[in-house]
Fold this protein.
Amino acid sequence: MDISEKAFESHIEDYLCNRHRYRSRISKPKDKDSHYDKNLCLDWELLLEFITATQPDTWEKLTEQHGQTTVRQKFLNRLNREIDRRGTLDVLRRGIKDYGCYFQLAYFAPVSTFNSEHQELYRKNILSAVRQCHYSAIETKDAIDLVLFLNGLPIFTIELKNKQTRQTVENAREQYKRDRDPKHEPLLQFKRCLAHFAVDDDEVWMTTRLEGKSTYFLPFNRGYNGAAGNPPNPNGYASAYLWEDIFSPDSVLDIIGNFIHLAVEDRNGTRREQLIFPRYHQCDTVKKLAAHAREYGTGQHYLIQHSAGSGKSNTIAWLAHRLAFLHNVENHRVFDSVIVITDRRVLDRQLQITVRQFEQSPGSVVVIDKHSDQLVEALTSGAAIIVCTLQKFPVIVKKVNQLTGRHFAIIVDEAHSSQSGEASKSLKEVLRAQSLEEAEQLELEESQTGEDLINQSLEARQKQLNLSFFAFTATPKQKTLEIFGQPQPDGSFQPFDLYTMQQAIEEGFILDVLQNYTTFETYFNLLKIAADDPRYEKGKAISLLRGYVELHQYTIARKTALMVEHFWENTRHQIPGENGNGQAKAMIVTRSRLHAIFYKQAVDDYLKQEGYSVKALVAFSGTVNYNNLDYTEAQMNGFSDKQTAEQFKKPDYRFLIVAEKFQTGFDQPLLHTMYVDKILSSVAAVQTLSRLNRTHPHKTETMVLDFANHVDDIQSAFEPYFEATILSEGTNPNKLYDLQAVLEAFNLYTTEQVAEIVELYLRQGEKAAKLQPLLRIIVGRYAYIPDLEKRMEFKHRLRSFIQLYAFLSQVITFKDADLERLYLFSRLLLRALPSENQKSSLNVAEYADLESYRIQKSFSGKISPKSGASQLDPFAELEPAGLTDPEKAALSEIIADINRRFGTDFTEGDLIFFAELKTRLAANQSLQASAKVNTRENVQLFHDALFDAVLQTMIDSNFEMFKRINDNEEFGRLVREKIFGQVYQEIINKLKVR
């Protein structure tokens, strides 16, 4: 059995060509031997075949404009300029114009089957595959394993690795980062190809932009048992869905036509473009929902439980667009309008931008930002997509019920957002309280969320057959599951589609907020241990503990001091910026709005008292009246409450003190630490702590210090969404020394080796390649451990040390530099150790880029290290073939006819030139493929364009003939006609034999 990478490559190509009817094409180091032209980054033959088969009249018109001999080059010059300016995606979607001639470069599936001509054009798209594609005009031997093309234009590159040869998807990602430099390589430049895939037997990862070592790959895996990865495939490779499903012609054209889009950000005057390619679950969810709605029509309820980090905004935008133009099997629109209910302003813009890229007609998206009359008008006029806020929901339900004969899809986006506080109906506009206890009691009742509002509204009405609801949420309540979920035989309810918190964490889209969760009792005990142990620094946090006995004795002022000192000693250095300074921010979650006011005053006073150069903001809704004085968020912060979120982005604001507001629906990647002084239950606990889970390139962990809740309650709250273990409980810092001893007992490394590797890693300007030989020695010793259980035990202990140190270092400061070195060394080593073919429970932080850690340590001082090519012919050269008698006779007739008509004296000696010309054209695979599916007239258009290119390759063999054909238009036309007749007949005869 052949288990090589080449065999893997061959398996995929065979499937694409045999099952999906891709064309197999050739790439060689020299362009004259290739179908693929590395300078133009395309397959001209297939592009021309597509154009002449679908738009023959337009091509003929352009040929008349440019002339037969120059049309190819002028058209390609125009095409390349447009791709350079607009990108392949836009060119495929919107085509190009050349001298008044408009060309479509792809045809996408029509929304209905009314237009049979469009259906026929759609079927004429040509997908092709090139193995070992020699893409570089500079390093001509460099080749990408597989490149896929649509109508001759490259769309996807693929690097393949085979685990049987000890290569994995990680090696493929590294190959792209290290060896596929987009500089001076047109194929690899941004927007030329739509995506680059790294693939092995089990996993698929992808990126839309190659940027050397900064290239960021996203997983494109299906997920398995609610976690990352792919399910086993009993019939082959676990990653086979990529070429069997995703790369099927209908899927490829659907993804290009209806999913990929260009996002443009303007930050501080800098324009940044990003090609958005759907992740697997996004693509799968949208297709499944649309298919179900097409089959079953309106009157359905769907619950889409997608975790934070799933990309819900894009999923909703793609779904809204698809539902707005969805037709059933009878070619009727399923929905007259799609209504998106969201409190996210970013989604308003995102929907408009996304849909605008798909639709030629403007105004498909109407945003309701004024009054209810605007909403009624949009519903009555049948706007394709309507975006409005949660507060308009009752109006929507009432109005659509009155519009008989009309059908609507309602997409509800995370209905528990509380950035504005408006959704919390139980929250009084003015809180009047004379004490903290009274304020807490008044606001003890759990606030009613938008999710509750929608559930109550739907419960009060019977199911409406002209409405379908699509509810998106990461943390559905039980009532939401009952209303929107799919009923199961056992009486329970399940979401229609699920992307779990576990999968989002393992795939690196969010962080595990329970990784470093600790209650105050645990924190208190850890600091007591540190206070009596000379191996730990004695910071202010420890000194503040002296004299404190019970939790209930702490005043807000004392808690504030403890929080600020913890932040100052342990958090502020986290998430280093470009200059190495920490950017981490913290949130203080309070019991009531009055508590938030007291905390704001206490934090401001303590920061001023200690001279700490950071500031705090407060966030709460409405007005608080205390001792006959009114307090508002705007008054306490010094600017409008609408600016709070934006102001908090500024580097000097490091604390955000909240009461309800911002506890859900708030995204700030620099939020690292949360201080909780409020009882949190069930969904509220998950939503609140999840404010920390947003990722940042230099953020590898989070920290929660909880003054109010029990660990069991938090664990129980997360269980429905995430099987997590809270590490901190029962932790003793001395366990680190126990683990250090256990690891050293394996005798895989020495303390000198640890110091050497860490010193080298922290040294500025050193190349990572220098680390590899040092780590390889230790990895080699590990590999020689004969017992698999022993190897797995070492990995487990190494991982335990990493996790425990990461947690404890956020609570206490170690004097022991050896522990710090061992921690960094352990993270490097764990990444280098080979897989044991078992599913790893490795947290995403262990995969995180260690560069941020190196920057942080370098600046914190915990460990101080010692001191253009020319265009080439794309057609293959063919050996001259011997002539059979019938062929010789036919060519002799051509010579005789030419001599009679033009008074020439060409002899049978010239037969060899025409024989070679005919042989090359008849052997052209693209021409053969065109003859299979197109009319004789369309094939002749394609032949005439190929004729000139082939003729160029024969200029040296008979210059006089070449010159006469090009100089005398009538003579050239006759030769083309006569040769085409011979070529076409030969191809047709061969097809009949087959």
Remarks:
- The two ends are 32 Å apart (CA to CA).
- The chain is about 45% helix and 15% strand.
